[in-house]
Amino acid sequence: MDNGRVKVFTGYRVQYNMWRGPYKGGIRYHPFADLDEMKALVAWMMFKTAVVDLPFGGAKEDVVCNPKELSLGELERITRRYIAMIVDEIGPFKDIPAPDVNTNAQTMAWIMDTYSSLKGYSIPEVVTGKPISLGGSVGREPAAGHSVAICVREATKKVGLQRTWRIWVYACCS
Fold it and tell me: CA-to-CA distance for 130 and 99, rounded, in angstroms?
């Protein structure tokens, strides 16, 4: 920690069904992480990728911490140490982390840098959601919200609620 104390943090990486391809899922930093919750989320991730026919299994990760109480330096050290601990469990053909609750492009940059340093060469494909300057994708940050909006629009069409959809979009986007 910044004050010189050593603190131990618990981390979970749950992987589910690699049959379709490498594991794929988000890394969360949350003070109330729970292994059972991770198991449920990882199953949902696998189903989400299967429904849209993406060649991925499901994965989810959580480091039990409250990032709002940590400095940027502490978050970086936690991230880098965590990746050093799981370096053999992740990788472009094995398990590809992405940002999730309380993580972002900066977190993914630290992961990519740590993983690449430990492997001895640059491996940008180890994570998604990294900064554009490091090979990230334009539009990654608003993608989740945009996909929810598309799902709501399509669902309202199916049940004849197009007018409701327009009102909802107007209210959200005004």
Answer: 8
Residue 1's pLDDT is 95
pLDDT at 135: 66
CA distance 82 to 101: 16
The confidence score (pLDDT) of residue 47 equals: 86
For the entire predicted model, the pTM comes to 0.79
Listed as ranges, residues in the chain with pLDDT below 70 are 135-174
- The Cα–Cα gap between 79 and 29 comes to 10
What is the spatial distance between Cα 137 and Cα 166, in angstroms, rounded to a whole number? Answer: 29
In the block, which residue shows the tokens 């309380």? Answer: 102
Would you call 60 a catalytic residue per the annotation?
Answer: yes
Catalytic residue selected from 39, 60, 130, 157 = 60
Compute the distance between CA of residue 174 and CA of residue 154 in angstroms, rounded to an integer.
21
Helix, strand, or coil (residue 134): helix
Q: How far is CA 173 from the centre of its chain?
A: 26
pLDDT given for residue 46 in this prediction:
86
